[in-house]
Amino acid sequence: MTRAFFIVGPTATGKSELAANAAGETGAEIVSADAFQLYRGLDLLSAKPDPSTLAKAPHHLIGTMPLCNEMNAQKFRSAASRAIDEINSRGRLAIVVGGSGLYIKALTHGLAPLPESDPKLREQLSSMSLDALRSLLAELDPEIAKKIDRNNRRRAVRALEICLLTGKPAFAQREQWGAHASSVHCSAPNGVFVYRDREQLYERINQRVENMFERGVTEEVRAAGATSATAAQMIGLREIQDLLAGKKSLPQCVAEIQQDTRRYAKRQLTWFRRQTSFLPLNLSFLTHNEAVKWISLRMLSEAGKRDD
């Protein structure tokens, strides 16, 4: 059986450091499940693990794709499954770590077969206003309209695309997940859902954004070049581009990115609480070393059960 352990949770919780130290303790290797850390470049903006963290254990799917390439859950599932199989072939456990809920679910539940994007239809939908997209989606697929972020244009376009190409609601088709399970799927995927008390998490988010600017994220964005529609969804990219164009002040830019990141963390918390059965672990009540020890013991225990 495929051996993978999941460490999931909202941004700025400390997942990367926990996973790297736990991997070092157990001889495991890490597979990133972060939709933006996959891309090469924008290391500060995507909050990639720093070199000292990366040196603690082998990491996979970090900085492997050009910013101009599109990415989706199906592509991620294929790449991550290959990485996990390679890790297992060396007799090692894979730690899947990240906060991109859709990518995590693609591994734990598989994916329903959905149609590829149609360029002409995508162009027509992309030309519509966000209000028009939301209105049409509410008419064609009211269930999915309730579930997706009202301001997420990309997801609204994709949901409408699925409806119009198949003649069926996207919500009903996504319910087929699990019937099309991936090689990583099992009846009860093993892992932990890590989080922090809200006040502490928000403080960590605010501080991380300030640190990004101190370390030169503005120049990083200036040098980034062309980005795909997927990469362009990275939190803070549009705001920093506006800063460079003189449309925003630095304090305004920082505040907006902090607010958007806090909102994203809140959505991630909701997603993982509803969509997974991973054991919850509140890091606000543990030291880093205590959390690493607890997770390492859990990993080894689960690996032993599977070997039996």
Essential attributes:
308 residues, alpha/beta, Rossmann fold, Histone, subunit A, 2 domains, 6-stranded parallel β-sheet, 14 helices, globular
Task: Provide structural commentary.
With 308 residues, the protein is α/β, with parallel strands linked by helices. It has helices spanning 15-26, 51-54, 73-89, 101-109, 119-126, 130-140, 142-147, 153-166, 170-174, 198-214, 217-222, 237-244, 250-275, 288-307; strands at residues 4-8, 29-32, 59-60, 94-98, 191-195, 279-282. It folds into two domains: 4-111 and 184-307, P-loop containing nucleotide triphosphate hydrolases (Rossmann fold, 3-Layer(aba) Sandwich), CATH 3.40.50.300; 119-174, Histone, subunit A (Orthogonal Bundle). The protein is built from 14 helices and six strands. The longest helix has 26 residues, at 250-275. The relative contact order is 0.18. Residues 177-187 have low confidence and may be disordered.
Strand-residue fraction? 5-15%
Query: How many distinct folded domains?
Result: 2
**Approximate helicity band:** 40-55%
Query: Which stretches of 5+ consecutive residues score pLDDT under 50?
Result: 177-187
- Identify the CATH class of the largest domain: Alpha Beta
Summing up helix and strand content along with how strands pair, one would put the structural category as alpha/beta
Give the quaternary arrangement of the chains: single chain
Q: Mean pLDDT, nearest integer?
A: 89
CATH superfamily of the largest domain: P-loop containing nucleotide triphosphate hydrolases
Reported for the largest beta sheet, the result is: 6 strands, parallel
Q: Helix count?
A: 14
Rg calc: 20 Å
